Amino acid sequence: MNVGMLWLDSEKTSTVPTMIANAAAYYRKKYGQTPNLCFVHPSMLETAGNDHENVKIAVKSDKAILPGLLWIGVEDQLTTGAE
C-alpha cells in the first residue's frame, strides 16, 4: 500500500478492532472505497483481529507505525503481463 490514511482514534479507551472499524467507516465515507489493509504497531497486532464490521481487512504489523496509530487503505494490486 503506497497511499493510505493515518488514523489516530480520539477515544484513548477504544480497542484495536474498534479503532479499525472507526477508521474503515471514515475511510469509506471520505474516499468512497472500502479499505482492505491496515498496518499497526507490532504491540497492537495481538488484539487487532481481521473481521471489522463484516468487512475483511488484513491487519499487518509494521515497526514504523507508532503505537496507537493505524495506517489504513487499499492494498496495491500488482499488474502482470506486457502492456
List keywords for this structure.
6 strands, alpha+beta, single chain, four-stranded mixed beta sheet, two-stranded antiparallel sheet, 1 helix, 83 residues, 19% helix, 27% strand
Protein model, in words:
- By secondary structure, the protein is of the alpha+beta class.
- It has one domain.
- The chain has one helix at about 15-30, and strands spanning about 5-10, 35-40, 50, 55, 60, 70-75.
- Strands 1-6-2-5 form a four-stranded mixed beta sheet, covered by helices on one side.
Concise structural overview:
The chain has one helix at residues 16-31, and strands at residues 4-8, 37-40, 51-52, 55-56, 58-61, 69-73.
Poorly predicted runs: none
Helical amount among residues, as a percent range?
A: 10-25%
Strand order in space, largest sheet: 1-6-2-5
Q: End-to-end distance, in Å?
A: 22 Å
Radius of gyration, CA atoms, in whole angstroms: 13 Å
Number of domains: 1
Number of helices: 1
- Give the percentage of residues in beta strands: 25-35%
What is the makeup of the main sheet?
4 strands, mixed
The 3D shape can be described as globular
Number of strands: 6
- Strand-pairing-aware structural class: alpha+beta
**What is the arithmetic mean of pLDDT?**
84
Order of helices and strands: EHEEEEE
Oligomer: single chain
